[in-house]
């Protein structure tokens, strides 16, 4: 009789829950979920899977219950090499951006700020060097004109969940797909402490195109913002903004001039005029 493939999962959110559903459907046994996230906890309770402290001694846990795979899905804990070496096949992580170009934190925001035209969801092997392991699967998609950091993060999660379906047959067989060749790609890594445009400052030297990119990159809706709030610097002080949108003009002015002020918007005419919403 073929041995049942098993795994631990660490992380949270509905991304973990929906990927774990795919594992269970394929006959993979989930030995436990390291999480304190409500969505992941609810999934574990529904499936009778133990919920474990995500800050627990992972070496001890994986030594006591040997597994074939460790899946890291929306997990913000950096796992040491001693943990990553314990799964018999591999430790695999979901990353919400293309590698190695957008490694690290808040990569959807950085992609928008830098004007990237496309993005990707990635599943890769984990190594001690964060986001540096071999890419196992990736799926690219175009960045929409009106994408924000929040919407792009959500879209990447959906793509990642769908892409996981391509990984599951390998997992059920106790294997991995052939790695993607990324040897010719640029590598960048973004720290949690890195800040876009000094935290989102929009000043006299900021073009309208860049101001719009700043706004989209720092738009996390009602969720906690890890990077900062777009801030228009004026002679009267700083003005926090929620949105920046460009309005094309046929007769752009040589300098920035305020042409309209309302309770909800400040309209500026400039060489590349924009609309700033507070």
UniProtKB/TrEMBL annotation:
This is phosphoribosylglycinamide formyltransferase 1. Residues 56-163 form the Formyl transferase N-terminal domain. It comes from the Bacteria. Pathway: Purine metabolism; IMP biosynthesis via de novo pathway; N(2)-formyl-N(1)-(5-phospho-D-ribosyl)glycinamide from N(1)-(5-phospho-D-ribosyl)glycinamide (10-formyl THF route): step 1/1. Its EC number is 2.1.2.2. InterPro entries: Formyl_transf_N (IPR002376), Formyl_transf_N_sf (IPR036477). Keywords: Purine biosynthesis, Transferase. The keyword Hydrolase does not apply. The keyword Transferase applies. It is an enzyme of class 2 (transferase).
